[in-house]
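Task: fold both queries, return tokens.
Query 1:
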Amino acid sequence: MSNIKMIVGLGNIGKKFVGSRHNMGSDYIYYLANYFKIKLNKIEKLHSYIGYIFLSNKKLILLIPDTFMNNSGKSILLACNFYKIILNNVLIIHDELDFLPGKIKFKYGGGSGGHNGLNDIIKNFNNKLFYRLRIGIGHPVNKLKVNNFVLNKPTIIEKKIIKHAMKNIMNAIKIFIDIDYYRAMNYLHSK
């Protein structure tokens, strides 16, 4: 059984960013909230939107930072301090440029790969050892167009592929919580 107590979805705050490639993490938290029929409440002092779900008889905190991507770490740190949770008990869900749309993989530790949200988490916690769930969004042909690419919405075909793949995330998270990280990783990586 895993020690995950909080699931965080990274993204930029604001209606215009909902559904963009860079908001895959926060959009998935909204998906979970909708699936479990719960409301995410804005908690001003934690700079976050927070809700609670029960998955596999375990209470989990869902969190979306109420910040732009490059300031995500601050609100996650505030929430961890408030709930007395260490970073190793947190699963961070985020978009991944280096994967084709719909490819989903777990990762533990490592650098940020240039992802501003991960950079800020690593900076605020001074720690790279945390669990990540990476959702592939693909990469623009021209590297100079990355900013524009991540802030735009996926194509209709990409949306279908990502939506189909997202159904596997729920199973993977359940396996992670019920059994362990390695079994969940094997499940996802075999898809």
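Query 1 returned. Query 2:
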Amino acid sequence: MKEKSFKNRITQGLSDLFYIWKQEFRTTFRDQGVLIFFVLVPLVYPLIYGFIYTNEVVREVPAVVVDNSRSSLSREYLRKVDATPDIQIVSYCNDMEEAKLMLRERLAYGIIYIPSDFSNNIARGKQTQVSLYCDMSGLLYYKSMLLANTAVSLDMNQEIKIERAGNTTNRQDEITAYPIEYEDVAIFNPTNGFASFLIPAVLILLIQQTLLLGIGLSAGTARERNRFKDLVPINRHYSGTLRIVFGKGLSYFMVYALVSVYVLCVVPRIFSLNQIGQFSTLALFMLPYLAACIFFAMTVSIAIRNRETCMLIFVFTSVPLLFISGISWPGAAIPEFWKCFSYIFPSTFGINGFVRINSMGAALSEVTMEYQALWLQTGFYFLTTCFVYRWQILMSRKHVLERYKEMKNNESA
């Protein structure tokens, strides 16, 4: 008799789980707001980012020149700078005030200033200098200005050293120019491009943030529609904590398993971004990341009282989470408090692990810390989700009981 009762409970539990999964799946594709955040945003948002940064680097940055030297050597220097792919000299100004005016009017983004003693100092064997002034509203402008002028100055330094050395053989010239030979190889980002650096981190963060938006919107809708403004509806199928958590979580996981394949595999291929990681490694890594993001979002959804609240969470947290992950800002420079604070969010470990797997070809054993941290977050946020929904079930029963007592009192009166 007990065995039969136990089997009935198992059957009923699985039936309720399937019902909750079906209802949540139906809500995802019937609620236009949830559908936008679960499907449309992950489909379109990565493409917008990809098209914006598809050129990877900034070329032909407009620059102006103030050449007070007006010598053959200064003209040679400027000619070589203009010949680089990074800078285009658009004007020669008489003084710095005229050059600054062009910067203020956005006709140029940098100033190359050559002092009057530029050529004379070199002829006398003294050190000279070229000054650069750049519009720092865009760091890529500064990068192009600095790289182009550094490359030209090194090239001219080499020629001057060879000319003054008085060597008799080509080999002596090579040693004079490069006493220590070096080769510049950009590993993991061959183009030194902005898209290859930033977009992988944005894609991982996008998964977490859209899950927060979609699940939060769904929670806000449930509170607005449910009779007592509770997260859990008054329904016999929603009587068990585990069946609710697993039913909802399975629905979100099935949707985002497909979304993740598109976001993390298809989008980088469309824009020819660096992809050297193994698909099997990436799939194993994404398993705890998706689970952690889902349970994290389900836990946070307890604070969502209406549909609009989740939008504030998305707008407020997206940029800070990207910074404290240690990708766009060096992790060693992040204060200890914010570094510890970042461990709350799955995106911190997800971004660092995904970049190392996808862009650096790391194996799962080489991202052990991130992988284990995501599993720990999955377990922790699963428990918090169970606690949240158990409390909501009790609140729903309490409201029903209060309503029943109120009706009884009215009848007796």
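Both queries returned. Flag for query 2: The radius of gyration is 31 Å.
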